[in-house]
Amino acid sequence: xxxxxxxxxxxxxxxxxxxxxxxxxxxxxxxxxxxxxxxxxxxxxxxxxxxxxxxxxxxxxxxxxxxxxxxxxxxxxxxxxxxxxxxxxxxxxxxxxxxxxxxxxxxxxxxxxxxxxxxxxxxxxxxxxxxxxxxxxxxxxxxxxxxxxxxxxxxxxxxxxxxxxxxxxxxxxx
Length: 174
Hints:
Layout: H1 2-11, H2 14-39, H3 42-45, H4 52-59, H5 68-72, H6 78-97, H7 111-124, H8 126-131, H9 166-169
């Protein structure tokens, strides 16, 4: 039976087979690209109920034209980006399906994600970082915690004055 089907396939004009394979490849590529773009979009990310307030604050920010993953995923390689995205995605899937009682009201970035976000901030704002001293704090979010997610995302330490000697230790920065 398989041999008979294979012989029928070989009997078809090679140009038709080539055109069909080319069309299938284009459709598959286009579908994959569109799917990946959607999975990077704020519209997709806000589907989880814990992301609703994050999304709302994001769309009103100066960074609203960006995709979530412009900031939240590494960009050194496509493989690294997909691995990081897959690991974070599986965690989100777990919490939104099996661990629903453990979902916090507000999600904070993990340490690896904070490193990625900081690197992406510095990359996009390279001219500012190069022209203004930014070595007073350990990362961008220390001072720019509300970018791009609004004042609702400040923690208690945000408005605290510096501790005695902190400005000297941090070369005059906050």
